[in-house]
Design brief:
The complex is a heterodimer. Chain A contains no helices and three strands. Chain A is mostly beta strands. Classes of the chains: A mainly beta, B mainly beta.
């Protein structure tokens, strides 16, 4: 059983050691293509860790 | 792969494939090699992939081949299939119940077709299924409750169908589900507190359904969610305080009926990349603590009933590229601090009650592409420093109380495609002549300077606006003649010059504007003869009325019906 996080608020991922041996490893916004074919005003965005052209899960 | 002798009889799987081909249409070109008479080795057929050892069909990939027809029940005879990908065709009919016999299936993608009918309950027999993608079809009926009996289902994408009924609550008790895409259906019921039992889910999207009720107070427990999109439903009540416990990157509550104030706690959610609370019934101020959202790129608060002034703290949202506060009841001045937003691409403050001048500091937003302050009570003139906004393509200053001259420097905003500064007839106006430099706006598509106090003549340089489609200079004090150079404007569709003091004749060159479909020269002092040829023959007398000295082909014209000059 996981306890509910009791702290309010959030912050971007630190991305510390999330890109394997690649550096620098930085948190970036990436658009997520939703299930539609028509273009939207914006795509949902999520955080990923980026190093060079490679994305990693935070 | 093993080569079968020519014309050897197919086994059961081969026969099943031939049945599948037989129920498709448009197969002539794309499934040419699915031909048992020439090649019985179905493992080499297009889109068929067999297991190396058992030589049984393991994968069927016929995506984006423009296939029509239906999916044959014979698909159920391919008992070792692990993956079916038929996305992006024109398949119609129902999903056959027999698909439940493909007991090894891990990956089922039938998206972007024309499939209709219910999602078969037999899908629940696919105990190994990890991905179910049926988006963009015409499926009806409910989401089968039995989906909850698939233990390893990680992705459910049923978006853009016509599914109805409630989201089965049991679906939320799935710890492995990562992606739930239900947008664009007709789902009803409310968001269940159970949704936060999805402890492995990162993508939750129910945008564009008919969900009602409130956002559950327990929403803060959905701590694995990265994207929470409940936009365009009929959700009511207030935004719960507990939303502040979420870790989401995208929070979209757009297009619901949410009431009450914006909880200040949202200002602590620094992981937000996109925050969209627009098109609700929210009241009260924009919390100044939003300035704390220094990683947020898109903030949409438009279309609410927000009051108070724009917090100068928003200038601290250093990653902001979209800021839409339009269509609220915001008062006070535009804070100079917004000039600190170096990445700002679109700033929309239209239809509020803002007053005072546009701060010069806005010129520091060098990434600005669209700037809209339509429908406020702004005064002063256009800051000369706007010439620094080299990325600006859309400038809308209409319906305010601006005054002064239109600066020559405006011609320096070379990428502008829309310049819209017309006035309410009752309010104050720009005055003085139209600077010839407006002719430098070579990318301009729309020029609307109507309803001001502009005087002087129409600059011949307007003939350089080679992209322009609409010129509206009506309701000003323009005099002099219409420059023949306007005849160079091959894209001009609307030329609206009514209610000025223009005189002289209508230049024949205008008949070279082949795109011209809307023309209004009424209520000026034009004279001479309306050119009787080309597109001018289709303009009705209304386009010319109120020019007593103008001669044309209408009843009551000073001359008899026009003859060729």
């Amino acid at each position: 059983v996981t306890h509910q996080k009791s702290r309010l608020g959030s912050s971007p991922p630190s991305c510390r050691s999330k890109c394997g041996r690649c550096s620098p490893c930085k948190a970036v916004h990436v658009p997520i293509q939703p299930g539609v074919s028509i273009p939207l005003e914006y795509y949902p965005e999520a955080w990923r860790c980026k190093c060079g052209n490679h994305l990693f899960m935070p | 792969a093993v080569l079968f002798p020519l014309g050897s009889p197919l086994n059961d799987e081969g026969k099943a494939l031939m049945s599948i081909k037989a129920s498709f249409s448009n197969v002539a070109n794309v499934l040419l090699d699915w031909n048992d008479a020439h090649d019985g080795d179905f493992c080499s057929w297009r889109g068929v992939f067999c297991d190396n050892v058992s030589l049984s069909v393991a994968s069927l990939n016929l995506s984006n081949l423009n296939l029509g027809g239906e999916i044959s029940p014979a698909i159920g005879d391919l008992g070792n299939l692990e993956s079916i990908d038929l996305q992006g065709n024109k398949l119609t009919g129902q999903i056959p119940d027999e698909i439940g016999n493909c007991a090894s299936l891990i990956h089922l993608d039938l998206s972007d077709n024309l499939l209709y009918g219910d999602i078969p309950f037999s899908v629940s027999k696919l105990k190994k299924l990890e991905l179910l993608n049926l988006k963009n079809n015409q499926l009806t009926g409910p989401i089968p409750t039995t989906l909850t009996q698939i233990p390893n289902l990680k992705t459910i994408d049923l978006a853009q169908n016509e599914l109805s009924g409630e989201i089965p609550r049991l679906i939320y008790w799935n710890e492995v589900l990562q992606y739930l895409g239900l947008r664009g259906n007709s789902l009803t019921g409310s968001l269940s507190p159970d949704m936060c039992q999805l402890t492995g889910l990162w993508y939750f999207d129910v945008r564009g359904n008919n969900l009602t009720g409130k956002i559950p107070d327990s929403i803060g427990n959905c701590t694995s969610f990265e994207i929470l999109d409940v936009s365009y439903n009929q959700i009511t009540g207030e935004i719960p305080y507990n939303i502040g416990f979420l870790q989401v990157a995208t929070l979209s509550l757009q297009g619901n009926r949410l009431t009450g104030k914006i909880p200040e706690v949202i200002g602590l959610m620094q992981a937000l990349a996109v925050l969209d609370l627009s098109e609700n019934e929210l009241v009260g101020p924009i919390p100044p603590i939003f300035g704390n959202l220094s990683y947020t790129g898109k903030l949409y608060l438009h279309g609410n009933k927000l009051t108070g002034s724009i917090p100068p703290e928003l200038g601290n949202m250093s990653k902001l590229s979209y800021l839409q506060l339009n269509d609220n009841k915001l008062v006070g001045r535009i804070p100079a601090e917004l000039g600190k937003l170096e990445q700002l691409f679109e700033l929309n403050l239209a239809n509020n009650v803002l007053e005072g001048p546009i701060p010069h500091d806005i010129s520091s937003c060098t990434a600005l592409n669209q700037f809209n302050v339509h429908g406020n009570r702004l005064t002063g003139s256009i800051p000369l420093t706007f010439r620094n906004l080299q990325s600006l393509t859309y400038l809308n200053l209409s319906r305010n109380y601006f005054s002064g001259r239109i600066a020559i420097e405006l011609g320096g905003i070379i990428n502008l495609d829309t310049l819209w500064v017309h006035r309410d007839l009752s309010s104050n106006n720009f005055s003085g002549p139209v600077p010839a430099s407006v002719g430098d706006l070579e990318h301009l598509l729309t020029l609307n300077l109507s309803g001001n106090h502009l005087n002087g003549s129409l600059p011949a340089e307007f003939g350089n606006l080679r992209s322009v489609q609409t010129i509206d200079m009506s309701f000003n004090y323009l005099s002099g003649s219409i420059p023949g150079e306007l005849g160079q404007l091959q894209n001009l569709a609307a030329l609206i010059l009514n209610n000025n003091f223009l005189n002289g004749t209508i230049p024949d060159q205008l008949t070279n504007c082949f795109s011209l479909a809307t023309l209004n020269f009424s209520y000026n002092n034009l004279s001479g003869v309306v050119p009787p040829m080309r597109n001018f023959s289709r303009f009705l007398p209304d386009s010319f009325t109120g020019n007593p000295l103008l001669c044309g082909n209408w009843l009551g014209s000073i001359c008899s019906p026009a003859t060729k000059s």
